[in-house]
Write a structure and sequence with these properties.
With about 200 residues, the protein is α/β, with parallel strands linked by helices. It has one domain: Rossmann fold (3-Layer(aba) Sandwich). It is about 55% helix and about 10% strand. Strands 2-3-1-4-5 form a five-stranded parallel beta sheet, sandwiched between helices. Helix 1 crosses helix 8 and helix 2 crosses helix 4. The radius of gyration is 16 Å and the shape is globular. The two termini are about 30 Å apart.
Length: about 200
């Protein structure tokens, strides 16, 4: 199991990409966003979903994940797609094992704007609807987070609330990473920790 990758997981609108980019810069890590990787290697996600089933998209996204992992050669903050941790097992024979590895990795963080169900739903919908490409179907955003909320909370990893300023989220992530002595030995400076 690699301990030089920080995985950020959670629903769309949780702030994974925003926090991840800042976290990578603060730690001096590389930054990889699986959605951006998909666009670069498989085309626009919305367009892909117009001509393929969601299961086909999930399979393709998992393939992209494996390709991206082979290219990682230095410490990296890796932002996974919103649905990556809740795909159906049958999308690929290797998916379940990979999902377990990600879930149990020492630096996997579930980011959620709130761990209260209704607050989380309201915040996710509000955030997602602020994105122009998602405004056309507000009902689907609410339905998606309502269906997945319990699945996210069942994941056995560290949890961080993103219902605060991004700087505080990053400070919390850095503090948790720095608290792990094995990673400190590999070079993270405690001076990176800032007060919230």
């Amino acid at each position: 199991m690699r301990n030089d990758i920080v995985y950020l997981i959670g629903p769309g609108g949780a702030g994974k990409s925003t926090a991840g980019a800042v976290l990578a810069r603060e730690l001096g890590y590389g930054f990889l966003d699986l959605d951006e990787y998909f666009v670069a290697h498989s085309g626009d996600i919305s367009g892909y979903l117009c001509s393929h089933t969601y299961s086909e998209y999930a399979t393709r996204n998992f393939t992209n994940y494996r390709l991206a992992m082979t290219a990682i050669s230095s410490p990296t903050v890796f932002v996974l797609s919103s649905g990556f941790m809740v795909y159906l097992a049958q999308i690929d024979p290797g998916y379940s094992g990979t999902r377990d590895v990600v879930e149990m990795a020492p630096f996997t963080f579930l980011l959620m704007p709130s761990f209260d169900f209704e607050n989380c739903v309201a915040m996710i919908v509000e955030r997602q609807l602020s994105r122009p490409y998602l405004r056309s179907n507000p009902g689907s955003e609410e339905r998606r987070i309502r269906e997945r909320f319990c699945q996210y909370l069942a994941l056995r990893c560290q949890r961080v609330s993103t219902g605060v300023a991004p700087e505080r989220v990053v400070s919390e992530l850095i503090a948790r990473i720095a608290a792990n002595t094995s990673l400190n030995r590999s070079g993270i400076s405690l001076s990176l920790i800032r007060e919230p």
